[in-house]
Fold this protein.
Amino acid sequence: MAASLILHLIPALLPLIQTPGSGIETIYVVEFCHADVGFNAPPSVMQQRNHDRTVAALNLLDSEPEFRWTVETGYQLEGFLDRASSANRNRLIQRLSEGRMDFGANYTNLHSGNCGEEQFHRQLYPSAGFAAELGHLPRTVFLNDVPGFSLAMPRILASAGVDFAVLGPNDFLGGNPAIPLQDRPFWWQARDGSRTLTWTTVGSYAEGFVEWGMVNLSTMNVKIPARLAEFEAAGYPYDAVMVLRAFDDTFPNNGMVNLADQWNQTHTSPKIKLATADEFFDYLWNRYGDVFPSYEGDASGYWEDVTTVTPASTASVRLARSHLPEVEALRTLLHLYQRLPYPARELQDAWQYSLIFDEHSGGGVGWPGLLSQAEVEQENQEFVAVAQACKNLVERSLEEALAVAGPILVPNGEQGLVLFNPLGQAYRGLVEVHTGTAQPSDLRLIDPQSGTEARLRWLEDSRSSFAVEVDLPARGWRRYSVTGGGTTPPPPAWNPGTQINLNGFQLSVDPLSGTAEQLIELASGFDWLDSPHPHPLGNIQSGLQLEVFFGQTVDRNPPLGSIMVEDPGPLFRRLRVLDPQGFVLREYRLHEQGPRVDLRLWLRRSALPFVPFADHSAHYGVDFAAHLTPPVRLFLDGPDGFFEAGAESLPGAQLASFGVARSARLQGSQGRWLAVSSLHTPIVDLGEMHGAALLDLEDDERSLAWKLIRHHNEGQVAGGAIVSFDVEPGMPDVIPFHFVARYGDAGQAPPSGEITRRDLTPPFAAWVELGQGSSSLPVSQPLLPWNGPGELLAWKRSEADHGMVFRIRGDASGGVAQITLPATTSGVWICDLVERPLQALSVTAGVVDVPLIPEGVVSLLVLDP
């Protein structure tokens, strides 16, 4: 007792210290727990811990007046709310209202470069719901651990009323934006001019422990002056800084309360203040006003390639979230016109499953020595279950919609095909139709209005599926009558060969490797694949983890058995590369609308060489080459559309490996370009796969490498044992990958975001055996008449179920979209991203004029009558 009393009195007996040469008077310390969805434990266990640690924080807030706590993400808060007693829920509401507690506005810490645009919007929806429930509006997002930040971030934050962002990435391998100390905080500005006041840490979210020494007073006395001297030397202009003090999967305690008390009793300046991030930002704003510098750009891509550890489930979520906006639109239309119940809960769950899965912890073999074998296996099972749940919800909702929408648009008793294009611009291209049963060999698809026969071709000998060339109205549908008497050629025969010709182009493959050697434009003799770099189209490159880190890969094409080409036919022509057992390794499709080559390949995980734990993992990627003239420029299709890597990147952003929402484009100095859309994998590299955080773009490359898999066989569990793992239990051994490669000259426009979106999400097809509709039905109909610019990104029921929400992207010129509303309304509002009304718009004769934001997105709320 006497000893503890003496220790308590020591600070009061010591002389007060003032840190020399620093104008910083206050250190705002923000405490929280960084909790991944998984990593430290299976997701279900982590969510229970998120509840328990929040209760522990509430208990400390009861006993420690100076204590402050932040719940890092909406996902962590959800773990608490789903399990909380009414008493603890009320305690949370009380502490939030006092400003002693806060929660982050983002749902999870995402691999943001991989996200789709509407998926990225939805990351702010859950916390908006919690805000309404708890009476507290979160104003800060915490983007921690993963060093990857899409340039879409400031736009979506500003449009959702989120004022501040805190970046706390782990940067021990680089990739963290290099914002000078004197420029922190900075306005992170989006293309549309919106901005978010942003702070980035000195080290990571653990900087309080590591860089600032906030573990004991003696360490603080060494490290805090050193850090402050760095700020002073840089010319930091403010009298306060913010420090994050957090670590993985920790529980709150009063350690920092005691350290702050000891420090403040022994130092005149600076003082330490436990706070929320809002308090720090508000202090600077009120003290200095709007004096902060601006930066614009992207810093995503680094760490995103860990998603290829689980390629099958990553692909299923990628395709599901790509389809979700179209499914929502179709279900909204059916609710509007057929009163079919709108599956709000199921669609919300699908979005949230996508955000949970695309968070950065994922499944795999576990961090070495951290978890038991049972914990790693449970974690993998739970992540696969999340991916499957996302996929199943989307597929079920789409199947239900097509089962209703198809028959009512085909005249009673007739057979027909109905194609839906609910969000897109006018579409002319191919759609694959799977009928489920063998069809007559003389099948015809007729436009009932013009009598024109649609061009189609069979995909299989069974004649149960075919590809058809269609012409669809923007934001609408079209019907074809199904009859006999057609002249479509039979399913094409296959014969040995290494070359296919179609519509003035010739594709040739190497008979030894099966990689594409030439894509020649016959009229000019120009070879689109002529490149001095050893990365031919379809080539598989590979390297172990350490080799790939330094960009060292080798060709690893599987043994070849035969190469087969199909007989000439309409729309496209195929060439297949098979292994000695007859398994299809690759399929090249040369399209009439060229130069375009689709590459489909199938990877058997069980056929990959075993990788021992000592070698970590083996990376496999596929190459796409082009005849380009360096220096090249790289354009990436991210959550905010295409941007140029390097030229539109934040300073310090890594420029070696990238995650994309849909596609990437490589453009040479003479204007020729290669554009590749990827349906299944989000990761692309320039030339060779690369793991280091390069700060300069390799502008001498002439090829793109899409990463297929980071293949692990073994991991180390707690206690040191080396164990084999199935990283995706229950997923198929054969993993498909599909790419669309287009080539063009300087005078040809590269594919737009609308085209690449359609690569991943073609129009929906409903095969109708027996129609139930009126004979007076139109053949084709736009469902949302529209004059003027703008791209419709989303069309959904509002979260409050009191109307419809339209999300519209403007181009560089902005302008006004004149929309004829599909139903009567009691009011139309421009709303924020999370559907809170902002500005009323007038409606005249059912038409509303919507002012668009150049390079921005407008959300429109159309209320029910």
About this structure: The radius of gyration is 29 Å.
